[in-house]
Amino acid sequence: MNLERLRTPFFLIALVAMALVVAVELGEHLIVGGFDAGTALTGQAAAAGLDVPAGGQVERPAGLGVPYLALVDAAALFTVALMAAGLVVPQRLQGRLQAIVTLVFAILLLLAAAGLLVLAIAKLILMVTLLLAFPFGTIAYLIGFGFFPRGTAVVILSLLMFLKFVFAGALAAAQQRFLQNKGLVALVLTSLLCTVVVSLLHGVVPGVLVSITDAVAGIVCAIAGIVWAIVLLVGAVVGIVTAARATADAARTAAVPAIAA
């Protein structure tokens, strides 16, 4: 990436915006989960014609959709961070290390996304099984997953969407050539689309079922993370092979004059 004529302040704004996005996504469970939901649970159980015994404390379940967005946004943050490295790291050194660093990151992202995908599928199966096992399974579902703080999630998703628009706008303002990078544009669009999907799945069903659709959103984001991890992995392997061939060709070219001498 040619960093000439790069408007550094806008680029740094984009980098900070995406870092905030990932931080909010990873810290979402501290905002959404772990709070008392006993009153809301009693009301929802009564609406469903079920009697939930009083007493004890019921906690709001932490969602999967918002934290799983980090699987895609981490790839965007990593990509921009590599570009930022070009501002301080010598170009020759950056070219040698970029493919190796990308390979390591892609493998870690792929493993994380695959593991979280399995977790989301298992949670979805558990919730659907409990919900359909009327009446005791349904009561257990309501106790464990029946209340999802959709309002809080909407606020968080709105903040994330705003930060992502700031990221995209600042990146375009930093250098218009970023818009010609099809991979980067596709990654940003994937991030925005996943955010919209999570928001839609939170709002398309009654409140008592949002935990189920939230798990579906997590599955969608995990699959998107796997796809981008594979894209980065393939690109890293190609880069390493290309760099190795270039090094070998340079070594042979340097060896020819020495033999002739």
**Count of individual beta strands:** 0
What composes the largest sheet?
Answer: none
Percent range for β-strand residues: under 5%
Shape: elongated
> How far apart, in Å, are the first and last alpha carbons?
39 Å
Radius of gyration from CA coordinates: 24 Å
Question: Can you count the helices?
Answer: 10
User: Would you list the SSEs in sequence order as H and E?
Assistant: HHHHHHHHHH
Q: Return the structural class.
A: mainly alpha
| Range of helix content | over 70%
Low-confidence stretches: 34-38
Q: How would you state the average pLDDT, rounded?
A: 84
Describe what is shown at a glance.
By secondary structure, the protein is mainly alpha-helical. The chain is built from 10 helices and no strands.
Structural commentary:
By secondary structure, the chain is mainly alpha-helical. The chain is built from ten helices and no strands.
Chain-wise SSE layout:
Elements (H helix, E strand, L loop, with lengths): L7 H19 L1 H5 L5 H10 L17 H4 L1 H16 L5 H42 L3 H10 L4 H25 L7 H22 L6 H51 L1
Helix pairs in contact: 1-5, 1-8, 5-6, 5-9, 5-10, 6-7, 6-10, 8-9, 9-10
